[in-house]
């Protein structure tokens, strides 16, 4: 959401990672404080560090993070990021690699054997479905039909100028509205801050410690926003519900409905005028018919033989082919 605050992070302190001795199987050693096993003296394997269980964490107050440990290239002992030489064997640490850290080397799931027959079956079914749709609904064939009639219909709506009741928001109300009455009504909503949603996350620092980081995202609630909803009167031309006049027939000479009021009637209460005329032109081809443009309608004469496309399955004429 635009304008929302980003996630907030807050450190909850540093704690010791744990490790188990590879030689004497001593478990739960402290990764920062115990770089060698107190039982057999074996050096710590930094790649086997792990998080302690909930409630068993050992806090390190005043810990200053200096960077991830590096593994000595000679003896593989974990060394501080700031060390120049290994404290276990004395070898220089130039080019020493950074330790892996928890979760830095995920194991990829084993690949499932591919079932080629299933892929082929799915592709075949999809192809069969596409063919069925084409065969049933899209496939066409050419056919010769005879134009048997030209039909037409003209509809002219009748408009009346009067004082009408309307409703709308205040900012959409026409300037000539009168007898206005408004009341508050919910128009939309807005998001307002409503606290935070937080969780703690353990982050391996790869120096024998992990940091507990509190991550918080802002939460929001929806609040209604009211506006003025208004009822008002306005004088307008409007179509009469049952006032349209129609004329229909056959042949190439459509006629306008009779009994129409003047199109330029003055805007006086109760005055009526003819609206915009609508025309439908239809070509009849045997049992089939198509509503077409004026140019297409006049292109053919009654009795003309016309080559058209029809749906192969249903026999319905494809009117766009005329």
Descriptive overview:
This protein is mostly beta strands and 322 residues long. It has a domain at 139-157 and 244-322. The protein contains two helices and 16 strands. It has helices at residues 116-138, 294-299, and strands spanning 8-16, 18-19, 29-30, 70-71, 78-79, 97-98, 140-146, 149-156, 158-169, 178-204, 209-239, 245-250, 272-274, 278-285, 288-292, 305-311. Strands 1, 9, 10, 11 and 13 form a five-stranded antiparallel sheet that branches. Strands 12-8-14-15 form a four-stranded antiparallel sheet. Strands 5-4-6 form a three-stranded antiparallel sheet, with no helix packed on it. β10 (178-204) and β11 (209-239) form a beta hairpin. The radius of gyration is 42 Å and the shape is elongated.
Ordered list of secondary-structure elements with their pairings:
Elements: E1 8-16, E2 18-19, E3 29-30, E4 70-71, E5 78-79, E6 97-98, H1 116-138, E7 140-146, E8 149-156, E9 158-169, E10 178-204, E11 209-239, E12 245-250, E13 272-274, E14 278-285, E15 288-292, H2 294-299, E16 305-311
Antiparallel strand pairs: 1-11, 2-3, 4-5, 4-6, 7-16, 8-12, 8-14, 9-11, 9-13, 10-11, 14-15
């Amino acid at each position: 959401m635009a304008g929302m605050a980003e996630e907030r992070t807050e450190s909850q302190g540093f704690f010791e990672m744990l490790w188990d001795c590879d030689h004497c199987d001593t478990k739960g050693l402290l990764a920062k404080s115990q770089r060698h096993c107190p039982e057999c003296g074996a050096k710590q394997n930094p790649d086997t560090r792990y998080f302690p269980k909930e409630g068993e964490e050992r806090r390190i107050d005043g810990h200053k993070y200096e960077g991830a440990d590096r593994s000595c290239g000679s003896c593989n002992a974990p060394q501080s990021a700031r060390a120049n030489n290994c404290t276990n064997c004395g070898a220089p640490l130039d080019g020493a690699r950074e330790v892996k850290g928890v979760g830095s080397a995920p194991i990829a799931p084993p690949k499932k054997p591919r079932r080629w027959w299933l892929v082929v079956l799915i592709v075949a079914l999809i192809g069969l479905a596409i063919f069925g749709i084409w065969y049933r609904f899209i496939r066409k064939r050419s056919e010769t039909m005879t134009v048997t009639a030209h039909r037409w219909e003209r509809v002219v709506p009748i408009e009346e100028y009067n004082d009408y009741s309307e409703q709308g928001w205040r900012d959409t109300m026409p300037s000539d509205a009168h007898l206005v009455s408004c009341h508050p009504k919910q128009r939309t909503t807005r998001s307002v801050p409503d606290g935070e949603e937080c969780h703690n996350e353990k982050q391996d620092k790869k120096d024998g410690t992990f940091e507990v980081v509190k991550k918080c995202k802002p939460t929001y609630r929806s609040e209604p926003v009211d506006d003025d909803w208004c009822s008002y009167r306005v004088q307008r031309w409007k179509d009469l519900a049952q006032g349209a006049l129609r004329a229909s027939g056959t042949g190439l000479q459509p006629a306008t409905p009779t009994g129409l009021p003047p199109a330029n009637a003055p805007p006086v209460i109760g005055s009526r005028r003819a609206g915009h005329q609508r025309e439908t032109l239809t070509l009849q081809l045997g049992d089939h018919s198509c509503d077409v443009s004026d140019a297409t309608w006049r292109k053919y004469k009654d009795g003309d033989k016309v080559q058209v496309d029809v749906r192969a399955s249903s026999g319905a004429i494809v009117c766009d082919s005329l």
